[in-house]
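Look over this today:
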Amino acid sequence: MNAPWQASCLRPSTVNIRLANEYTAAKRGFGLTESLIGVVIMGMVFVALYAGMATGFVSVRASRENLRATQILLEKFETLRLYNWEQITNNGFLPPAFTNRYAANQSSKGVQYVGTVTITSNMPPGMTEPYIEDMRMVTIRLEWGSSGIPRSRTITNFVSKYGLQLYIVQ
């Protein structure tokens, strides 16, 4: 047997009213305020996503340009190491300026790298070694523009009269 309070809770009209109220509440959906807040949040998420992707692409492009500049500098210096002493010390043999262009694909205009090569017998202060007359300081500077920002890289090293070029078969 059911208690009197249980009988009143299980009446069909009470149960039907609850189900009807829950059904209509679920059927109503979201209001205008909730919808607008959701649209604003999604808009901010898409803007943040776009900004993150754009920053990533700019960073990858700058890294690619820096890597290419380093490759050009090393290539120029490694070819310089193969010249003999007379070619290095002769002022007219090596061109003091050079250009190199890099394009990631055929449709883009690419980046133009402009470089200078400076060979000097003026050594840094403090170098008093007896073989200093048989050395030259080589500075290669590379400049280029990327998105309106001037960029540059420099490498400085030494070349010796009795260096690597003597061991290369000519």
Notes: The two ends are 114 Å apart (CA to CA).
